[in-house]
Amino acid sequence: MLIYQAFRATKKGRRLESPELDVASAQRVTDQITRETLRAADVVRRLRSFLRKDVPNKELCDPRNVVREAARLIGDEARRAGVALHLDLDPRDVEVEIDVIQIEL
């Protein structure tokens, strides 16, 4: 995961070198890098906890959001591979108690 984040940061860093890049775009890029790096650190922390057999960190969440986030994380790689992701999620609101990081692993 951290290697993937470093790759994405490098790719986004190249976008910052673009002569037509504006400040707002640069801010969005750095914000996204920050969010994804913090998320990667959380994944590593939770994975360590999981391997130590700690109690899962369950929370109520909408499983559709978990699927959307997973699709967002692999979206760039899927597009490069020529794969189109289409989500057909249940429109009903529902919350389940899950450990989001454990599910994504």
Describe this structure in words.
There is one protein chain. The protein has 105 residues and is mainly α. The protein folds into 2 domains: 54 residues; 50 residues, no CATH class. The chain contains 4 helices and 2 strands; from the N terminus they run ααβαβα. It has a two-stranded antiparallel ribbon with strand order 1-2. α1 packs antiparallel against α2. The radius of gyration is 16 Å and the shape is extended. The mean pLDDT is 77.
Question: What would the keywords be for this entry?
Answer:
mainly alpha, 2 strands, 105 residues, 4 helices, extended, two-stranded antiparallel ribbon, 2 domains
Biggest β-sheet strands, sense, barrel: 2 strands, antiparallel
| Helix fraction by DSSP (H/I, runs of at least 4) | 55-70%
Low-confidence stretches: none
Beta-strand share of residues: 5-15%
The shape, in one word, is extended
Structural classification: mainly alpha
| Average residue-wise pLDDT | 77
List the helices and strands in order.
Answer: HHEHEH
Count structural domains. 2
Strand order in the sheet with the most strands: 1-2
By DSSP (H or I, 4+ residues per run), the number of helices equals: 4
Compute the gyration radius: what is it? Answer: 16 Å
How many β-strand stretches?
Answer: 2
Distance between the termini: 10 Å
